[in-house]
Amino acid sequence: MLLFHVDGDGPGHATRILVTVYDHNDRLLLFISEFVQAKVYETSPIGTEVMQLVGVDKDRGENVRISYSMTSGSVGNLFGIDPELGIIMVAHKLDFAVSSE
Fold it and tell me: pTM for the full model?
């Protein structure tokens, strides 16, 4: 925060202005690995952790918060992701005959 003292129209007149500087979401989110691959057994129960994505954001304050979500690729919603931790887990019973990837 910055605090300014500005002179007014004459002696004894002054205005105090409080300026708050916010961090802008201006740095790119980086992942530890650009390409990640994991294997999971067909017999893995629902809730099994498959892997964890790790993103790093060099912004500050609220802009450093990362939220993970799946937008495509989980055919049949077989996998889910923890929005705060980036942990990908088994969400439905797996069947290799139906989907091998």
Answer: 0.67
DSSP assignment of 22-59: PPPS-S--EES-SS------TTPPTT-EEEE--EE---
Q: What Cα–Cα distance (Å) separates residue 13 from each residue in 4, 17, 44?
A: 14, 13, 74
Secondary structure letter of residue 62 according to DSSP: G
Q: In 3-state terms, what secondary structure has residue 15?
A: strand
Token digits for 19?
């300026």
- Per residue in 29-68, pLDDT (tens digit) is 777 777 778 888 989 999 999 988 888 887 777 777 788 8
